[in-house]
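Quick question: what would this complex look like in 3D?
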Amino acid sequence: MTTFQRHRFTPWLLLAPQLVVIAVFFFWPASQALYQSLYVQDPFGLSATFAGLDNFIQVLVDPEYRRALGVTVVFSASVALLALSVALLLAVLADRVVKGARGYRTLLVWPYAVAPAIAGVLWMFLFDPTLGVLSAMLGTLGVDWNHRLDGGQALALVIIASVWKQVSYNFVFFLAGLQAIPKSLLEAAAIDAAGPWKRFWTITFPLLSPTTFFLLVMNTTYAFFDTFGTIDATTGGGPGGATRTLIYKVFEDGFVGYDLGASAAQSVILMLLVGALTLVQFRYIERKVHY
Amino acid sequence: MRYHRPGLDLLSHALLLLSIAMFLFPVWMALTAATHTRAELYTGIAPLWFGGEGIDNFIAVLRDPVGRLGVSVSQLLFNSLVMALGIAVGKIVIAILAAYAVVFFRFRGRMLCFWAIFVTLMLPVEVRIMPTYQVVSDLGLLNSYAGLILPLIASATATFLFRQFYLTVPPELLEAARVDGAGPWKFLCDILLPLSKTNVAALFVIMFLYGWNQYLWPLMITTDTAYTTAVVSLKQMATGGDNLVPWQTVMATALLALLPPVAVIVTMQRYFVKGLVDSEK
């Protein structure tokens, strides 16, 4: 590639804003997080003693932390699987009806623009124990709904709100993926007398696997981080920690409990976890993916 | 070749319309709740149809201070707008400049800069939230628009999108510009920026939504409600000291807070889809 030569000063001038911002608001805090994870600090930040891996050990043996890990696994897996399967079904339907696919996209894409916290509040209203429409409906079916008291129901509430918001994102990608599949392939299969069901599983689904794989990674990170707002605005991690995910615990321990060492150690663990997860997804799933 | 089955098509339309109705249902319920008085709401189950308040609840939250917040929703919406625009514009400007430097110049330390920027993609702000809070606090930026905006533009997603795009620009363009005696700034303004119009629009939509819908960060750094955003205020309203949640107020605010991003996504859908599908894959 041709480039501008003999401009020594200009590139630095161009890079300066980005470098300053990431130095102050990224590298400085990130190094602080690493530093704090290795030190025990008193709550006023007056003194700190080197603790090595003590913070990490303490976090990992804490039963509350393991509970949060369990909640995160159940929550993330449910959100990712539900959001992916609903979106895939809707995308297949929208792709079938050649006329109107774009119209359906407009009608289904908007929940993406709704803030996670607002999604949570909307669903909290529907499931409100005293005047919610859905909790009343469940009441007539004999289900006594109160997510403020029942941990399982609280988890279900945040899962539903998170899925409701995420389906639209997956739908956009699945629809784009489906529309990129050459119609001639499907027609050829139809000539060979393959029915719609068989055509989907032998042609469409394998060809969609790169999209699915990418979406799996994106949905997992969404469930890990972006759903903080959904959880905080609806259940606040409760009742009794039933909806306290790992990111929620980092926030609680750091910002509410002011235990900086533990909070930083958790941040570092979370970082490694997300990194490892991405790596595993790439290594093991990519092999089965047809590009 | 007929492999389309009309019956299945009809079923598809029916299922799609049903799902769209189900997706709209929470918003519909919010809309009807926002048109009732609290007393009406609490007479039984939330009504499926509009009440007598009409748009009065909306006007009330926009005009008067809401509950314990002490500020009106107009102020909150204004704060959200400043934050969303600040993040979108800020991120795009610094990203364009940085990507331009990395792609079109050769200088010592170029690869180091590249990697320094690349690393920021690995760590979302949520993970380093406590130390970032401390840095912002040390700089005296709590309860300020700068504090709301700057830490969230410290990531390189946009920089990488522009880098990818610049790499596809044919080298002949730069050759021709140089033969004509154009310097780096002229090339950027007269040739590169006009070419990136679609990318800028796509990125603007995505970053605007990202900024508007932020929750954790504004929650932490705005203790003064004069700087709180609309999205963050909802929790405080929904968990008032009062036992009965004022759902009509909460729902009116929720609808006002979700309207701008939804309007952006619906009108700019073309750019949004392009931005999503082109960039993140």
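Answer marked as accepted. The CA atoms of residues 189 and 199 of chain A lie 7 Å apart.
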